[in-house]
Design brief:
The protein is 41% helix and 16% strand. By secondary structure, it is of the alpha/beta class.
Length: 460
């Protein structure tokens, strides 16, 4: 069958990167001899009119959409356009929102035929390979399938593959990294950075994070040989000089990371790399030195708050003393740059808590800082808590965008919170040392724009 996988048109336009999830799904379908195309509307900055024209120009049997809770109205509009232009095409939804709200997904999206929850490689390929003659018994056996039966919505339990290597490599030709000016920060050394993922799943219970809803609580990993093979492929076929590991918990299997670093060194792979998901309590001197020697030059760490009370409420299982000691360890033992992520406006947070976060960010030897306004994410403990307390009176999906602020802590006005957010940015970046580092690292106008983009989106 002819299958189109879509990263849909969205109002939350930001920096985009190759969609590994769609790449893995494409590989699973190609193994069953389906013809697959990927349409990344975000990267193409596609309007609904251009999306409609694209759909009208091709005859696909199946069209699949990745759905975030932030984009429900946008996806709804896209589905209506598909029904208008390709009424016979089967529509399948997947991603974070169906994983958290399986039944509600098919209720809201009447235009959709099916949805898949959790990791969808097995479920999606089984579903499409059995079209068009699916009986009830077959539907009941498809992992993660969300389907209708005589007006009732059924939801099968998801399956999380243990052997990630068995999934194969994503179809990089459909998510060509050279088509994405993927900048993880203004500190990236290369214009083109390919994302990689070594592990799936999360054993932690941070109250604001929803990753467990999609990938489960049990962490699983690719082999070192798989990652080495993928890096070699990217270097040979796309000229990639830098990769970024986007794992939620890159260092959980510390021995695996150690083996990877040793093989990168031994095989003289010569690749620069960075990673997103680093828990500070897993860092030690030996692994840091090995990571740097193998090509690591940039870490993004989740610090989140300068208030121990708020950290405890977040269930981070980190102390301020540990945060300070680990950041100082990285700075003392290596030349690895550090970017800290911080959340402002968390429930129960006071103005003084926010000032504590700003002071902590300034006091640490960080090369960069990302300040994110808190928004309640479906599938998280804090989202459910706020609903129970009726602090979220309605679920208004239109206000759930990453750069919007649907929740302001009690005792802080919207205007005051906006000022505190701007103040955090200014207090951190408007310092001689940081300004110098920015000017040294910023080698193009586009990189300079990166630094201010989130701030301007937030305050406009």
């Amino acid at each position: 069958m002819k299958v189109l996988l879509v990263n849909p048109v969205t109002r939350n336009i930001s920096l985009s990167s190759p969609d590994l999830g769609l790449g893995y799904l494409a590989k699973a379908l190609e193994r069953k001899n389906h013809q697959v195309a990927i349409l990344d509307c975000v990267n193409l900055r596609m309007t609904f009119k251009k999306f409609e024209d694209y759909i009208a120009g091709f005859d696909f049997d199946v069209i699949g959409f990745r759905v975030f809770s932030t984009d429900l109205p946008s996806v709804k509009k896209s589905l209506l356009l598909v029904k208008k232009r390709r009424p016979d095409a089967k529509i399948i939804l997947g991603g974070a929102h169906p994983s958290v709200f399986p039944e509600q997904t098919l209720q809201y999206f009447e235009e959709a035929d099916f949805a898949i929850r959790g990791e969808a490689e097995a479920g999606l390929s089984d579903l499409i390979s059995n079209f068009p003659n699916l009986d009830i018994a077959q539907k009941e056996q498809i992992p993660g399938l969300i389907w209708r039966n005589n007006g009732e919505i059924k939801s099968n339990p998801p399956v999380f593959p243990e052997d990630l290597d068995s999934l194969g490599h994503p179809d990089w030709n459909l998510i060509n990294p050279c088509n994405y000016p993927f900048q993880t920060s203004y500190l990236t050394k290369s214009k083109i950075v390919a994302p990689l993922i070594m592990t799936r799943g999360c054993p932690y219970h941070c109250s604001f994070c929803s990753c467990r809803s999609v990938t489960g609580h049990k962490i699983r990993s690719h082999s070192v040989s798989y990652i080495i093979e993928e890096i070699r492929y990217l270097k040979s076929n796309f000229g990639i000089k830098e990769v970024c590991f986007i794992d939620d918990n890159f260092l959980v299997f510390k021995n695996l990371v150690s083996d990877l670093c040793e093989q990168l060194i031994k095989q003289k792979i010569n690749i620069k790399w960075s990673c997103f998901g680093i828990r500070l309590d897993l860092i030690d001197k030996d692994i840091l030195n090995l990571m740097e020697k193998s090509g690591c030059y940039l870490l993004t760490v989740g610090i989140e708050s300068g208030s121990q009370r708020i950290l405890d409420h977040m269930k981070k299982k980190l102390t301020l003393n540990l945060i300070k000691s680990k950041i100082n360890l990285i700075n003392a033992e290596t030349h690895i740059k550090i970017i800290g992520n911080f959340i402002l406006g968390y429930p129960l947070e006071t103005e003084e808590d926010i000032y504590k976060t700003i002071r902590l960010a300034k006091s640490l030897p960080l090369s960069g800082a990302n300040f994110f306004p808190f928004h309640p994410t479906p599938g998280t403990e804090i989202f459910d808590e706020l609903l129970i307390k009726k602090e979220l009176k309605t679920i208004d999906w239109d206000l759930m965008g990453q750069d919007l602020r649907p929740y302001i802590p009690e005792g802080i006005t919207k205007q005051k919170f906006t000022w505190l957010f701007v103040l955090a940015f200014l207090k951190f970046y408007i310092r001689p040392g940081i300004i110098f580092n920015v000017l040294v690292a910023t080698r193009s106008l586009e990189r300079l724009k990166y630094i201010f983009r989130r701030l301007f989106i937030f305050i406009k």
